[in-house]
TrEMBL record:
Pfam families: Big_9. It comes from the Eukaryota. This is Uncharacterized protein. Gene3D superfamilies: 2.60.40.3440. It comes from Thalassiosira oceanica (Marine diatom). Residues 144-153 have a biased composition (Polar residues). Residues 112-128 have a biased composition (Low complexity). Residues 112-164, 258-304 are annotated as: Disordered.
Length: 304
């Protein structure tokens, strides 16, 4: 007889809450409850409930916490006075002990400031006047001003300036058989008050190597596989999720970073001449040539 084989244990499908590009909006100064399991589903056979077990990586500009023992919601609280993007990582497990990590992306927005009205009066208002108002005036209330206005009341949203790193005819040189970390954001500039910029993702991978975004999303690590010119494209965003694409142009070389030519010729060392002893003259090489000539003796000229 054949013994039944054990069926493989399936892992649950886990999904992040929000993304870098479309984070979950939360209000500054308040604790927001967010469904931690909204984009995740358990593996069959069911029932196989999921739950949030622990916070793996805490938020940088706030705090994430489990809201109840069942682990179905996560509570995010931003730091006082902070506005902008934040995220944290937490663990989700099913009833069979299969676990995985999920990220929560949030965007802290300012709350609506309501201007309080004056305290209500208990005194009734005056009785309405039945007399009609005066006939309208035929003259405008204010004469037009000759000076120009101060400009539109609402300024258009400023856009970041996103530029390529390197050019097709002036590529960035990297060393073969090594991984080079490139500061690709140096050629781009965030709009005023909307920085810093960050690299969202790689939109077009390299063909002759690999382009990988670093952990802090500020640089790209390039590793070549051959000596061909290469390139990759990436998406750069600011804190309002205003994004644009840029391209990194690469040339693979065999140079060593420490042995690159400086651009100026190396001069030979200048010979050192020791001090002249009294009564001796020195040759350019520093060797004594004999007694110094007597200035009182005039040279004689011999006719040949």
């Amino acid at each position: 007889s054949f013994s039944p084989t054990e069926s493989p244990v399936m892992a649950p499908e886990l999904g992040n809450i929000g993304t870098n590009r479309i984070p979950v909006p939360v209000t500054e100064g308040q604790t927001t409850l967010i469904g931690a399991l909204e984009n995740s589903s358990p593996a069959p056979p069911l029932p196989n409930p999921l739950r949030l077990t622990q916070i793996i990586r805490q938020a940088r500009n706030g705090s994430c916490a489990r809201n109840n023992p069942r682990g179905r919601r996560i509570a995010y609280t931003p730091q006082d006075g902070y506005f902008g993007r934040d995220r944290c990582t937490y663990e989700i497990c099913d009833s069979r002990g299969m676990c995985g990590n999920v990220e929560l992306f949030v965007l802290v927005e300012p709350g609506e400031t309501e201007t309080p009205t004056e305290s209500p009066s208990v005194t009734p208002t005056r009785s309405p006047n039945g007399d009609p108002t005066m006939h309208p005036s035929m003259f405008p209330t204010l004469a037009p001003s000759d000076s120009p206005t101060s400009g539109p009341t609402s300024e258009p949203a400023l856009q970041p300036v996103i530029n390529n790193y390197g050019k097709p005819r002036d590529r960035v040189r990297v060393e073969f058989n090594a991984t080079t970390r490139l500061r690709v954001l140096e050629t781009s500039k965030a709009a005023e008050g909307q920085g810093p910029l960050f690299i969202f993702n790689i939109t077009e991978p390299a063909r002759q190597g690999t382009c990988e975004i670093t952990v802090r999303e500020l640089r790209i690590d390039y590793t070549p596989r051959d000596f061909f010119d290469d390139r990759c494209s990436y998406l750069v965003c600011d804190q309002r999720n205003q994004c644009a694409q840029a391209t990194l142009y690469i040339r693979v070389s065999l140079f060593e970073p420490s042995s690159q030519p400086s651009g100026s010729p190396t001069l030979p060392p200048v010979p050192t001449v020791s001090p002249k002893p009294s009564g001796e003259t020195l040759s350019p090489t520093g060797e004594p040539t004999g007694q110094a000539p007597d200035p009182s003796i005039r040279p004689r000229y011999v006719k040949l």
